[in-house]
Write a structure and sequence with these properties.
eight-stranded mixed beta sheet, two-stranded antiparallel ribbon, 21 helices
């Protein structure tokens, strides 16, 4: 028997675009409920971003009802009962109630049903199995509300079995604990996750990377990562992560993002790694994008080397070479690493604010000489012209960007005649 309570009506529940979707899906007489993350986040007092609904109506019927109401319907996963409605330019995922017939890792053979509890039993954690009617009646089949309020991340049913159905749940267990948990992780879930850790190798690198980066966006991911390291959860996928001390220091130095902006996980990821780690090998293993790969390489081994105590001239040269964001992250990471054996290095942490103010005040300079300028001096395009341009730019940077175009061209005439 479901435990029923009420969720006070929220703006996202009563918004016109939401009401339009609910009205369309229920027009045939079948009920609809909000399910999953939107209910969980509303109960936790967190912003609701994605709105998911469930209904016993089959997906083809859901498509018909949406179109009859003049709403866009996208068949995002008909075989698994999922349709996306677009209302007021906002997507709503609508899924037909289902139960698992067989599971194959991340895939499952499902059958549609009208049993709300059977559908809830498919979900990973108790607070993700919550559902709520459009009027606010809450349905809680597995004690999810109590778990959420207590800061417990608990699997629906037997933890080992749920992880075996989908090994990505192993990482989701830690990610959700980082965001919603308090204290030590659930013992049954932790034991099941530790036992299944070798199975992470069966997951796609992209999914491992996505879950790890989401975990790193928690306000303080360090306690959970310490547990993962202590139980060898990360050893197979990320052996370069041996300690969270630098990451802990990084968090103390990090610029706090606004409530609407999630923390950037990439520099946090770099702070988790050994400074001698091979960024290119890690990027290949986790299938990072080219941009992520380049940022990670620049953070682990920046050229030029970054230091909060570097001279203003050296800092300006680094900004020109690397750009504002890379230098800002690199300075914080250098300060965090300096105290990686315990606490922050006092001198560097005190020098950091001044260096960051200089970074914020920096105005990019454009190199005043182009290839066409050298052609006007009679040089032919080719390797020699490229060498001379590079030499001129290096001199310009070494002179703290003071030489103007005339001085650079005068130097070019002298050097090209040698």
């Amino acid at each position: 028997m479901a435990e029923s309570d009420r969720l006070p009506l929220q703006d996202w529940m009563t918004a016109p675009e939401t009401r339009a979707v609910v009205a369309a899906v229920t027009a045939g007489g079948a009920p609809a409920r909000f399910v999953g993350g939107c209910v969980r986040d509303a109960l936790a007092g967190r912003p609701v971003r994605d709105i998911d609904l469930a209904t016993p109506e089959p997906p083809e019927r859901v498509m018909e009802l949406l179109r009859a109401a003049g709403l866009k319907a996208v068949p995002t996963g008909l075989d698994h009962g999922t349709v996306t409605a677009v209302s007021g330019h906002r997507p709503f995922e609508i899924t037909t109630l289902r139960h698992d017939v067989e599971t194959f890792g991340r895939r499952a053979k499902v059958a549609f049903t009208d049993d709300w509890e059977a559908d809830a039993a498919r979900r990973d954690f108790t607070f993700n199995a919550l559902s709520c009617t459009p009027e606010g009646e809450l349905h809680d089949y597995f004690g999810g509300r109590a778990d959420l309020l207590a800061g417990r991340v608990r699997f629906v049913g037997e933890a080992r079995r749920r992880i075996a159905e989908d090994y990505l749940r192993l990482l989701r267990f830690f990610r959700f604990h980082a965001f919603f948990g308090r204290g030590a992780p659930d013992p049954d879930g932790l034991a099941a996750a530790a036992a299944a850790a070798p199975k992470l190798a069966e997951l796609s690198p992209e999914r491992v990377r996505a879950e790890l980066f989401r975990l790193l966006q928690a306000t303080d991911p360090v306690p959970v990562l310490d547990v993962m390291l202590g139980h060898a959860i990360l050893a197979a996928e990320l052996p370069e992560a041996a300690s969270t001390q630098t990451l802990s220091n990084w968090l103390a130095l990090e610029a706090h993002p606004s409530d609407a902006q999630a923390p950037d996980p990439l520099p946090r990821f770099a702070a988790l790694l050994d400074p001698a780690a091979d960024a290119l090998e890690i990027a290949k293993r986790l299938r990072l994008s080219n941009a992520e790969r380049d940022r990670l390489a620049g953070l682990l081994r920046p050229t030029p080397r970054l230091d909060p105590g570097m001279t203003p001239k050296a800092l300006r040269a680094a900004l020109y070479r690397l750009g504002r964001q890379q230098v800002e992250d690199g300075l914080r990471l250098a300060a965090a690493r300096a105290g990686r054996d315990g606490g922050l290095d006092q001198a560097l942490s005190q020098a950091l604010p001044q260096a960051l103010r200089a970074v914020a005040a920096w105005h990019p300079s454009a190199f005043p000489v182009k290839g066409r300028d050298l052609r006007a001096l009679g040089m032919a395009p080719g390797a020699e012209m490229g060498r001379l341009l590079a030499e001129l730019e290096a001199w310009w940077i070494a002179e703290d960007f003071r030489p103007d175009r005339a001085a650079l061209l005068a130097r070019a005439r002298r050097n090209s005649s040698k």
